[in-house]
Amino acid sequence: MAKIGIIGGSGLYQIEGLKNAKEVEIKTPFGEPSDKYVIGSLENTEIAFLPRHGKGHRISPSELNFRANIFGMKKLGVERIISVTACGSLKQEFKPLDFVIPDQFVDRTHKARPDTFFEKGIVAHVVFADPVCSDLSKTLYNCAKELGITVHYGGTYLNMEGPAFSTRAESELYRKWGMDIIGMTNLQEAKLAREAEICYATLAAVTDFDCWHQTEEEVSIDMIIQNLQKNIENAKKILKSAIKRLGKDRTCDCKDALKYAIITSKELIPAQIKKDLSIIIGKYINPVR
Ligand SMILES: [Zn+2]
Q1: Per-residue model confidence as pLDDT tens digits over 30-40
Q2: Residue 182 CB neighbour total at 10 angstroms
Q3: Three-state secondary-structure class, residue 152
Q4: Which residues contact 77 (CB under 8 A, 6 or more apart)?
């Protein structure tokens, strides 16, 4: 069992230095995760790593099976997920090679991505006003700062659909809305992690200024890749430091997110759903007598 999960975004397809690393294939009621999970020990802590887009970066943001990815983490015993992600910046002060720990999200996807475990006979409304775990976010922030890496705490992540980057008009619009960074994947993960009572925090590394920045070169793939590689080196340092620092037990509210969220009468929840979701809802629908 691994208590800490790491989802690696663009550029982060493996974690070096994992002891006793082994690949595990996980089956879920929601289909296939992006790849096999790599389980191993880092800084004497068991972690589970999943490359978000699969090894070799094969799966586009719109095609990701977010539910399977997060369910797989739950099945492995993960209680905290650190999501490493590349992002564009919509603010002058968030520069390429800076890190941002966002605390809010805005959804600009086409809503075609399934982002809940609760459907087909079960309804649950989790509280999502604060969509990331502040304990985990603060740990990431403190670790980055102590390593001398430029890091910003808080900010709104605009989750666009992709895969093409924004038009200039879209980029300007998001800036007028007060958005801080832009990416294609983290909102759905954060929602599903909350439903699964897993702490979730985003470690976002700025690769570029999107396309609004008139004095900068427009987003070029070359530039993004170069910045990405530098960012990944720093992200790995932050991860190692954070894993060392995270305590064994959680004191935040994430672990009880479903306590009052399931609305459907227990006796009316279909048996198949009870079975499929047992690792998530079991403790609420089958109380220990
Ligand atoms: Zn938490």
Answers
A1: 999 999 999 99
A2: 27
A3: strand
A4: 1, 2, 3
Q: Cα dihedral sign for 274, 275, 280, 285? A: positive
Give me the helices (H) in 214-260, please: 221-245
Instruction: Give pLDDT < 50 ranges for the chain.
Output: 289
State residue 146's pLDDT score.
Answer: 98
Burial (CB count within 10 angstroms: exposed 0-12, middle 13-18, buried 19+), residue 219: middle
- Whole-angstrom distance, CA of residue 132 vs CA of residue 55: 26
Give the tens place of pLDDT for each residue, 187-243: 999 999 999 999 999 999 999 898 888 765 666 788 778 888 999 999 999 999 999
Q: What is the pLDDT of residue 239?
A: 97
**What's the pTM?**
0.95
Which of the residues 210, 249, 256, 276 is marked catalytic?
210
Amino acid letter, residue 258 = L
107 is catalytic: no
- Report pLDDT for 289: 44
Q: How far is the CA of 136 from the centre of ligand 1 (A)?
A: 6
Q: Give the distance from CA 276 to its chain's centroid.
A: 23
Minimal CA–CA distance to 281: which of 266, 289, 268? 266
- Give 200 Cα–ligand 1 centroid separation in angstroms: 7
Q: Which residue has the tokens 């924004």?
A: 166
DSSP 62-87: GG--HHHHHHHHHHTT--EEEEEEEE
Rounded to the nearest whole angstrom, what is the distance from the C-alpha of residue 254 to the centroid of ligand 1? 4
Residue 253 appears among annotated catalytic residues: no
Please state, in angstroms and rounded to a whole number, the distance separating the CA atoms of residues 8 and 86. 10
Q: What is the pLDDT of residue 268?
A: 96
Residues 6+ apart with CB under 8 A from 173: none
Cα 3 to chain centroid distance, Å, stands at 15
Catalytic residue, from 35, 208, 253, 256: name it.
208
